Amino acid sequence: MDDRERIQQQMLELIYGLLSDEESAELVDRISSDGQLAREYAELKEQTELLAEVTKADTQPPNYDQWKREAEDDRPTPRTPAATWASRTLQVVAALAACLLIAALAYPMLSIDQQDQTLALAKQKESLASHFLSVSVTGPSLMAAEVRNDFFVSIENAEAQPVDAEVEYTFKNPEGATVYYGLTKATNGQVTCQIPADEVSYATKLEVVARYEQAKSKLDVDVKAAPPKPIAVLQTDRPVAEPGETVNIRAVVLDPQTNRDQSANVAFFYRVPNQRGLNRIVNAERSTLKGVAQGQLQVPQSNDFDNVDLVVQSPELQNNFQQRALPVVESRAKATEELARLGERSYGGAYANNATDAYAGGAPSQIAAKPEGGNLVAGVSNRVRYMATRDQAQTTRAQMQVRGADAKQVAGNDKLNQDYGYFEFVPQPMQDYTVEVVEENQQPLEEQIAQAQALPAALQINNGVAPADQPLDVEVRVAQPNNTLALVATDGYNTIGHNLWDVGVNAPITQPVQLDLPVEASGAQRVQLFSMPSQEEEDSAAEPQLIAERIIYRIPVQRYDIDVDGLPAQADPGQSLDLLVTVTDEYNSPAQATLGVQMERMSDVLPQSQQPLGLEGEWLFNRRVQIPATAAGLPENIRDLEKDSVWFDQVLALSTWKEEPAASTSDDADMIAVASKDAQREASSPQAKLPVMRRSNKKAIQSQYQQALAMIHAEWESQLEGIRQTSSWMLTAAGAILVVCLIGLAVVQGLPKIGVWGPGLLVAMGAVLWGIISLNLSLPEISPPSASGPEMVALNEVSDNISTESQREKKEGAQELAKNRLADGAAATEVDDNSGNWSFGGGMTDEMPQLRPAVELQRNGQQSGQKAQVELRTGPARFADQPDPSAAGMGGSGDAPGLAPMSTPAGGSGMSRFGAESRRMRTEPNTPPQPEAPFDSGMNEPQSDVANIKPAESMMALSAEAEKLLPEPILWKPRLTTNPDGQINIPVQLPQQPGRYRLLIDAHGSGRLGTVVRYVEVLPPNLASPTPSPLKKAVN
């Protein structure tokens, strides 16, 4: 204890006299000296005295006898031994009943663990889901003939999780026999089923069987192959004819997928505009030989029409017929200026109006712009492509820019003399955007591109021009989540590649997609991006939406190269030439091919076509692509265009697809013209057709899975119901026994013990009532879904959503444009077959914005800080192997005049002029154009001095004769065959008439095409050289 407690103890001992004398004396002295201890001692002494007084008080002792009597009076005493036994028995039974009652209440809680039950049920569901596999197949609605076709198979379990199952697929013919069998294993639930090209035409059904452990799922899909119908290309020995002339015609029939020549029974017809019906060309072959059928047409002697429509008809062709317009003109009866005007209309370009110089001219500044894919999508980065040219005489600084709402600049650059490129920016919804060229102190040239729309995604193709054996690299910039997109590549008739996927919940996001297209699919192809309807919308017959469309070009990897020996750059009048033509394949091995040879004297007035020449250019490009009205002239050789892939891709991005006329079912040749007009009207109405089908048994599998899942739930509910019933019976029995026992105790013990048996009786009665009620309760049962057979989910083709008014406006505009244009060769097909597809949005739905050109004053606005990516060509000329045009004369160049419009402006890349309908930046006085010397891209060797002839002297000598106004055919060999060494000798007798002559040689066979164009200048007699000109080889 502490010091204070010890002192207090000593003070108590002092009070009670328990200390010794010495200790007492010491303590008294200490208390006397310390006032605080004195006070405590006084208080402690007072307390002890009070306690002593209390103990001395007189108290009454307890009466224990009385307490015992009172206790004995309160204890119930049984009257008899039997009552005592009964009371004890009831107490024991009541205790047992109470235990049973407690057990009845605890039994459900001890038997059912909610967490364990949930985990067990989840494991059972997972195990059950793996036993139900759903198969989904996505493939072409119409399989392309003669090429490989792919079908994408997706395997999922009932919980929509991918399953790496073993997939067995079988293609069968109509009789049920196996055409092609394959066995593979899915990776991440995905697998590709391929059918070889040789078996496509026989397959009518695809059976897919997926196996995983004990699970098995089967899906049958009806497939259909496109009839392997070929396409005919019509060629003539001259681009323009005169009344009364005999025109040579040939039709080359090729397979659209493999480019192989096909056999077909054909019939040739012609029709003039002022006559109804078709006229059969009697002097023509009725069937093809080596893919070629030829004939001759005597042009009617009449001046009432400007062109003759040539038609080749056959039920074996893809569209039953093919037609081509041949311009007809009387050269001696018309002035040179009228011929030049006709040339502008017929050949579709901004040609020189000077009759003595078809190669001169300088185009004014112009612009064409279009979002890649056709639509400007709000919320994601868009690529807007443009082409622009400026006056060559202008050297002021120009700026290309994109302006949005409130005249604010959203993208731009300030490079000089740019001719093409692209802008990238993120547009805002419902805002108009304009691309414009701004020069110092000049009015800007504008092109309103589009209004930004709230669409699911935007399209960007990274390799629009690439070899056919490379996959197509596409970036889909998703703007809206939870959508299903379909990327489809077609050749206008068949599906050659497709991909269908769900974009997920993340947006905006860029998703890379690759399409592995067949190697045989070469040339221009059509790529479309569709937005698929949801499952609910599919059930309500909703249709896909076409949201983007783009043209690509696949460079053939299998093609012919043609070498020509024995053709000089200049020759004397009447000189005999012996040409050696050699054809090799891509491996430089000799190839036996079918040739078509044409030679003609070039017109001094009419310009040449601004599209690639020959069978290769017509087949791969001209028949499919409609270039914009403001596009520059293309090179005459498609291979020169392929070399400059960046600029070629720009042309494709701004072009539209030529809609093929619908196939005619009429066998009457007189109905072909009517069918052609109907097909043109149908083609002028853009439609969003989905050439991809999707089949799935997911609904049926889900139905079966839900039934099995309902059975599991029923089993669990049955177990729970058994526990509940047992607990209810236990509760009712225990409560009843307890009630009986407590009533008995109440009778035996009486009312004085009501505080004991009363509450127990109430609890027992409540237990009985709850047990009776719970026995009559039942949990609601889960009704399983009704079983149904496998359900095929198909995606219907989209119908034409264009309003009648929109169709009428487009048709009237196209007809007005067609009246002002004539065409030769492929250009005529463009006018006839695509009268409604002159806008940039051709082939799209009515929701696409219409491009409205406008020339306005420059709007002032603050520039945005957003950066733009701009791709420009500001370096050397487009085709590196071409010499400088200004350094060569007409006589020594040997070039194709078709390349003249591609002369390179300063710092540009060959965009010297656009179409005749283009807009001017400003009004300028008409100045006589400076002549440009044509050149030959294949002539790289030095020329003799005689080649440096002045163009003015040559043109003055040539313009003196009226026969030089129109082209004149010199040589026509529609069907020649090379020897096993791939060679053939062609003798050529040059005419006496001086001029420029073009040799065009086409080759086809073994799925390969080739074209070569060569030129020779026949000198006037006074300039003829006694020394023969050096020979040189032309390599295609």
UniProtKB/TrEMBL annotation:
Keyword Ribonucleoprotein on entry: no
Transmembrane segments: 89-110, 729-748, 760-779
Xref: Gene3D superfamilies: 2.60.40.1930
Keywords: Membrane, Transmembrane, Transmembrane helix
Ranges of compositional bias, category Basic and acidic residues: 66-77
Keyword Ubl conjugation annotated: no
Superkingdom field: Bacteria
Region of interest: Disordered: 55-82, 822-848, 877-945
Protein name per Swiss-Prot or TrEMBL: MG2 domain protein
Species whose genome carries this gene: Bremerella volcania
